[in-house]
Known about the structure:
The complex is a heterodimer. The radius of gyration of chain A is 27 Å and the shape is elongated. In chain A, helix 5 runs antiparallel to helix 10 and helix 10 runs parallel beside helix 11. Chain A has a two-stranded antiparallel sheet with strand order 1-2. Chain A is an all-alpha fold. By secondary structure, chain B is mainly α. Chain B has 15 helices and no strands. Chain B starts with a helix and ends with a helix. Classes of the chains: A mainly alpha, B mainly alpha. The interface between A and B is large, with 43 and 48 residues.
Amino acid sequence: xxxxxxxxxxxxxxxxxxxxxxxxxxxxxxxxxxxxxxxxxxxxxxxxxxxxxxxxxxxxxxxxxxxxxxxxxxxxxxxxxxxxxxxxxxxxxxxxxxxxxxxxxxxxxxxxxxxxxxxxxxxxxxxxxxxxxxxxxxxxxxxxxxxxxxxxxxxxxxxxxxxxxxxxxxxxxxxxxxxxxxxxxxxxxxxxxxxxxxxxxxxxxxxxxxxxxxxxxxxxxxxxxxxxxxxxxxxxxxxxxxxxxxxxxxxxxxxxxxxxxxxxxxxxxxxxxxxxxxxxxxxxxxxxxxxxxxxxxxxxxxxxxxxxxxxxxxxxxxxxxxxxxx
Amino acid sequence: xxxxxxxxxxxxxxxxxxxxxxxxxxxxxxxxxxxxxxxxxxxxxxxxxxxxxxxxxxxxxxxxxxxxxxxxxxxxxxxxxxxxxxxxxxxxxxxxxxxxxxxxxxxxxxxxxxxxxxxxxxxxxxxxxxxxxxxxxxxxxxxxxxxxxxxxxxxxxxxxxxxxxxxxxxxxxxxxxxxxxxxxxxxxxxxxxxxxxxxxxxxxxxxxxxxxxxxxxxxxxxxxxxxxxxxxxxxxxxxxxxxxxxxxxxxxxxxxxxxxxxxxxxxxxxxxxxxxxxxxxxxxxxxxxxxxxxxxxxxxxxxxxxxxxxxxxxxxxx
Lengths: 326, 318
């Protein structure tokens, strides 16, 4: 008597691409309807991404151009006394500094007569690169380390966890400041170091997720049939922690954007690129009379981080409600 | 229970040792040291011999291994050395700056928790009503706003509306010149409190919603207890426990924002010290301040863990 083995494979999903795309659109529609806050976050993020991509198109001026205005005190042949009293009196134009928002300069001009609107627009590039880049590095690194830590357990796990404890006992900002000073402060290096500083949190999150999966019966079954460690990790554990990865990725972004803004505010951020944090600091010198640079740059940080946080919260609720409050 | 506490204490001591080692090597990996920074290599005023001389005065000339052994031995004996920058002993520097940070930290916590607890509570009671949405939006905004920006905007509003004068001479402690110190601390403490406990509020809300569904809350209601008694005595007590668990994280967040706030408002606290020491490559001060912050966070976590072990016996075994 032979056993009856059913060899027909039931496809889980229809493999046609068209159908998959339309189900993606449907899922997005469901997400937007079911999670209005998450939808708002998504819209904010998409708008900022478009702004960053199209910065050179929608900018009204070059962010580095210094605007000039006719000098009201101009005199063609000033006397020595007049020059001593007002050194700029001899030049027909002055820097058009601290113009109020509206008109030609949508957000006004800064101390050096540069257009704040263009600066804010260009600043979105750095924040998005830093947020997304650092979060990817932290999640990928955290996945590798967290898996090793959880899967091999024992002494390896203990050591990794103590190092994670160590990194978490140092204020994140101090950690980032130390790391970013090691190398030249290019955008790439800052992204890299922010991701490294974030490893502690992602490692811990992913480790506990892997621990939960490790104890499940299908992993035991895979081991019984003689699957190798690598195969178990990639084929059986990984697909089951994808939700945690997406959550860790989306929730981290806002924190990295804030961290970059903070170090830029302290004057230790990436060099040679407009940064919102550094703009907030630059505007503080004239905060009482001309607050616009500080107001708009900081507002941009807040709105973008808000967008990512709302989106991350909604994704977490949809993918893994147990992580609420994490 | 004893075994559990001993395990935890050894773990905590090891973490503190790791933090010390990390900060020892971190400050030495950074380009430049105090000898080059203080002599102004770029100005061309210092010769190579000057710098070598300076290094050996500072104890920076030995091999890294020797320096590490010296540092370890000194630190174990609680000798933190002398500040390169001020020539004062590091203990003196810490003794001067720590009180400012503790003051500000406590003020931030008072502001934060006295907002977060009622707000989290109200938000849970009025779940999905307009009040809940407004309060949650506020919390989400507080999480998203950079603390230096909130503080800058607060200063702007104070200036714009002539709310109060920052009427402070010198750098008084709150017990020396209460009025002056409060005007000095007010903006950083509000901004820090706003940022530091938004997470607490959200956590408390979700915990309250969880707890309010429990059988013992229904029992309390069925007994005919007043709603306020049910909420405060039965629900809030249980919902606050997880908030305590993340106390270590909350304190870490607050210390992080203190670094920036102390810098912005010229408060000579630990946070300011760590920045100055880092940028000036003042190795002894940097190492010690990072170590002290770490001891503080680790002790908080230890206390929470032990308290939890007392409350929940299952945790002791894990």
